[in-house]
Amino acid sequence: MPTVLADLLEDIKSIEPLPQVATRVMQLSGREDVVPRDLVDLIQTDPGVTAKVLKLCNSALYGFQREIASLPEAGNLLGVQTLVNLVLTSCTGRYLRDYGYSDPEAALRLWEQSIATAFGASSLSARTHRSERNRAYTAGLLENIGHVVLMRFVPERREELQRALDSGLELIEAEKQVYGMNHAEIGARLARKWDFPDVLIDAIRTHHNPEAAYIDPDLASLCHVAEMATHTFHFGEIAGALPQYRMHDVALARLGLDRDGFLALEEPLRDELAKAKSILEIA
After folding, report:
1. Out of 34, 81, 96, 178, which could bridge 111 as a Cys pair, Cβ 3.0 to 4.6 Å?
2. Helices of type H across 129-216
């Protein structure tokens, strides 16, 4: 096994876990009998997460007529799955944005693009009636979590990666050549370490080749198309997005779209993302 790959596998093991409240919330949300009160009781054990969730509830995104002053009130208004997404958004912001990276600008760009992809996946799910929109949001938010490992542990190989890209390789192929594993596989292994549900692990692993998904191909397709929209339409505040990926027509077909239908998504997705900008400041 190449040294860099062996080191990466060790680095995945050393990444700090998500806060316990996030892991438990995700586990609880999979139960059929769960109600908002169950999640609220758990979330309130972490004051920091509680404060961020309340700030998000009172952001322009939701536009409630009055201030939401407590988590029980938020749970009753938003429901289980939206609460789950607020908790995950609050907790993953630390990894995608504030993790002591050598390139803070790249980290901020990753955070912005992750939020854009999450909202894009959710909106696409609602428009195409594929998968479930809250699950699509979660998968879109987390699909690029593998970049956390690459940015933190192997920044010194960025120049080698850029040379591979300059030679004409797509990013996924260049990562495999330089690191021995691409960010999608790294993210799936990190998600496994964090005890994510199998459906999310599968979507993270296959979001660049959704035809390989075996649990929910529609979810993987939503993740793929949403990320393509993020890059194609240049969503995000900072210029210099990661290189474009190859669009998989099989993903478009699963969502009932073609290339023209994809391009027609730009304006409605921009409207959707305009509502979500407040999240970038809070979470």
Report:
1. 96
2. 133-142, 146-153, 158-166, 171-179, 183-193, 198-206
